[in-house]
């Protein structure tokens, strides 16, 4: 499992996809425990083994359909459960993410509600490494996620302003290239 992951920070890895419609998948691994940020579109056989925790940045199928039936802890922002936009695919085993800070080994994860792409979009900051997993809210080179799939330009603008206040070092978006903060 996870043999195609590339190390991007201490105990943090990225599975680069061919960008057909699959999101980038991130892995934090420490002490034999595994946490995934997003699960891809389900067409990647490398994800057969269940992670200990899977955090979904939002409910679009290209981020959620890789979730396995046997995965015990799958977290998604509560607003996604009622979001009626297109391409939403909520895994049956997904639970509402309380979005309070979470310890995963020595990693302290902070959650930021960043609506705009979808109602329940989030960013996840690993305070230990400075990595910000931004889903489809913020991409590299100043780009940002679509708002025409049930999202909101106004909320996206507010979310992008919030992200600028987050003390991250490395932006890890749901698609495209990573970007070091200047």
In short:
By secondary structure, the chain is mainly β.
Topology:
Blueprint: E1 6-9, E2 12-15, E3 25-30, E4 33-37, E5 53-55, H1 61-64, E6 74-76, E7 94-96, E8 102-104, E9 107-113, E10 122-126, E11 131-135, H2 153-165, E12 170-173, E13 179-180
Parallel strand pairs: 4-5, 5-6, 6-7, 11-12
Antiparallel strand pairs: 1-2, 2-3, 3-4, 8-9, 9-10, 10-11, 12-13
Give a description of the structure.
The protein has 182 residues and is mainly beta. The protein has a single domain (6-180), classed as Metallo-beta-lactamase, Chain A (4-Layer Sandwich). It is 9% helix and 30% strand. The protein contains 2 helices and 13 strands. The chain has helices at 61-64, 153-165, and strands spanning 6-9, 12-15, 25-30, 33-37, 53-55, 74-76, 94-96, 102-104, 107-113, 122-126, 131-135, 170-173, 179-180.
Descriptive tags:
single chain; 182 residues; mainly beta; Metallo-beta-lactamase, Chain A; six-stranded mixed beta sheet; 2 helices; 13 strands; globular
Main sheet makeup = 7 strands, mixed
The percentage of residues in β strands lies in 25-35%
For the CA atoms, what is the radius of gyration?
15 Å
SSE string, helix = H, strand = E? EEEEEHEEEEEEHEE
General shape: globular
Number of strands: 13
Given the structure, what is the number of helices? 2
Structural class: mainly beta
Tally of domains: 1
Architecture in CATH?
4-Layer Sandwich
Task: Give start-end ranges of low-pLDDT stretches.
Answer: none
């Amino acid at each position: 499992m996870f043999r195609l992951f590339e190390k991007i920070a201490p105990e943090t890895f990225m599975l680069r996809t061919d960008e057909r419609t699959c999101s980038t998948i991130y892995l934090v691994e420490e002490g034999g425990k595994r946490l995934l940020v997003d699960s891809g579109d389900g067409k990647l056989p490398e994800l057969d083994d269940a992670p200990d925790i899977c955090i979904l940045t939002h409910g679009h199928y290209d981020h959620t359909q890789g979730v396995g039936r046997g995965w015990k802890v799958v977290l998604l922002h509560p607003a996604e459960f009622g979001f009626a936009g297109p391409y939403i695919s909520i895994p049956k085993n997904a639970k509402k993410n309380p979005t309070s800070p979470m310890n995963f080994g020595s990693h302290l994860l902070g959650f930021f509600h960043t609506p705009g792409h979808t109602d329940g979009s989030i960013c996840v900051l690993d305070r230990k490494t400075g990595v910000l997993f931004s889903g489809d809210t913020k991409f590299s080179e100043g780009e940002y996620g679509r708002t025409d799939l049930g999202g909101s330009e106004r909320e996206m603008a507010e979310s992008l302003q919030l992200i600028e206040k987050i003390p991250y070092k490395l932006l890890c978006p749901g698609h495209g290239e990573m970007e070091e903060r200047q």
